[in-house]
Amino acid sequence: MEKNTELLDEDKFTVSGTVKKEEFNKYGLYHLKKFHRILFYFLLIFTFLIFAIPTINTIDADLYIYMYIFLFIPYAIISLIVSLPALFLGKFSSKIKTSREYDSDQLIQKEITYTFSSKEIQQKFDRSVGYFEWNQIQNVYENKDMFRLYVSKAKAIILPKRFFNSDAEIDLLKKLIRDNVDNKKVKLM
User: Fold this and answer.
1) Which own/partner contact pairs does 46-51 have at CB distance under 8 Å and 24+ positions apart?
2) Domain boundaries along the sequence of the chain
3) Cβ-based neighbour number of residue 59 at 10 Å
4) What CA–CA distance (Å, rounded) separates 160 from 45?
5) What's the pTM value of the predicted model, to 2 decimals?
């Protein structure tokens, strides 16, 4: 039993820092990346079909293949012209939304300290202390500059990699995540 306790003490470490506005904006983009991608492809296909379906009905069967190939390129370009601005508008509106959310959330602007162990994640800011058990973590994503540990569908623990003192701490967090969170819910680099 004592070996397990020693092992738990070795696996415990603390990181701290303040999430910057740019990092919070990036979190928002990462969070909505899948939605933006789905919207882009939906608009791309939908716009293409708006032009292609009337053309299919008016083209003779013999000319169908040649005309469709000839018209495919302009329809694809029109679809891109419609879909790309929608993608950029979505990303721009996400940035505005996350900027406003950051400005209105006083807690995210304060220094936060996280202590990770094999039992739990402890979160401290000011005089407040909160605890998350590993089974409360719904999804984990690693990006090149941060970790996102989701405690609900829309709320995550944001851990910029600059919070960590060394690559060894990053590796230890990855080990704790792999050991304590279902592999289906984890996407690490």
Assistant:
1) 47/78, 47/79, 47/82, 47/83, 48/75, 48/76, 48/78, 48/79, 51/75, 51/78, 51/79
2) 2-18+110-187, 23-104
3) 15
4) 36
5) 0.74
pLDDT (tens, 9 = 90+) of the chain, 189 residues, equals 333 323 344 578 999 999 999 999 999 988 888 887 888 888 888 888 777 666 655 555 555 556 666 667 777 788 888 888 888 888 888 889 888 989 998 888 899 999 999 999 999 988 889 999 999 999 999 999 999 999 998 899 999 999 999 999 999 999 999 999 999 999 998
CATH fold, domain 2-18+110-187, is PH-domain like (2.30.29)
In angstroms, the Cα distances linking 181 to 10, 74, 119 are 19, 48, 11
